Amino acid sequence: TPASSLHVCYCLTPTRFLWNTDEYLARENLMPPLRLTLLPLLLALRRWDQKMAKRVDRFVAISRAVASRIKSHYGRDSVIIHPPVDVDSFSATKDIGDYFLVVSRLAPYKRVDLAVAACTRLKLPLKVIGSGRDLRPLKSIAGPTIEFLGQLDDTQVRHHLARCKALIFPGEEDFGIVPVEAQASGRPVVAYGAGGALDTIIPGQTGEFFNEPNVDALMEVLQHFDDSRYSPEEMNSNARKFGEAVFSEAFTRFVINAHAQHRK
Q1: What is the pLDDT of residues 89-112, one digit of tens each?
Q2: Cα separation of 200 and 225, whole Å?
Q3: Phi, psi torsion values for 139, nearest 5 degrees
Q4: In what order do the strands lie in the sheet with 166-169?
Q5: How far apart are CA 28 and CA 30, in angstroms?
Q6: Which of 6, 34, 168, 246 could share a disulfide with 115, CB 3.0–4.6 Å?
Q7: What does the alpha-carbon distance between residue 240 and residue 230 come to, in Å, rounded to a whole number?
């Protein structure tokens, strides 16, 4: 861009397959020779990515985890402005069921397998909403308490979010929209304690974390989980911190201030 232009990057995350290659490929079952073949290409793309990052005037990150990656990979500071969530489309109900819920694309890195395996071993009801290439492997480890609902429309998803005992969010995400939607629905979240979940969930108030990405750690939380301990009003209030109006005001203010500084 010309020197007079302000280049703002709203960064969802530095490219996963470049900078978190091992984690990204861990569950993809790629043969070692193929990984070795990819390495020179990945190194070249990383150098290109770092070069492009230098052209950005100001970085905005969607979570603390992403801000940390921007600092690590690009050597740049960033401001955190969380993504907008349509919290007004969700509401609480007193008609609560006895099932846990997963809402996710069924891809290996989403770690839905942790929720399926934990609920199978504990014989807890679990409904899984979503589709993807991991469906068959997930069904192969699922017990009789696991129900796969497939891809549902928004109205059906909102119905289940408002009535689940809790949402299980087993993967590490850059931000994670669904946990905020669950809280807007007055329901708590059991999440892996990493990534964007650390920004959106308050342990003991709007949900709980399990701190290792394995079945035993998740089971430990689910065994003692009591959804009656959480206030729907408090969860909804926390979700509203991530509403669309909050994002619009914060991002607009950031760009105006950044532009004024850029012109000096």
Answers
A1: 999 999 999 999 999 999 998 999
A2: 19
A3: -65, -30
A4: 146-150, 126-129, 100-103, 166-169, 189-192, 207-210
A5: 6
A6: 168
A7: 16
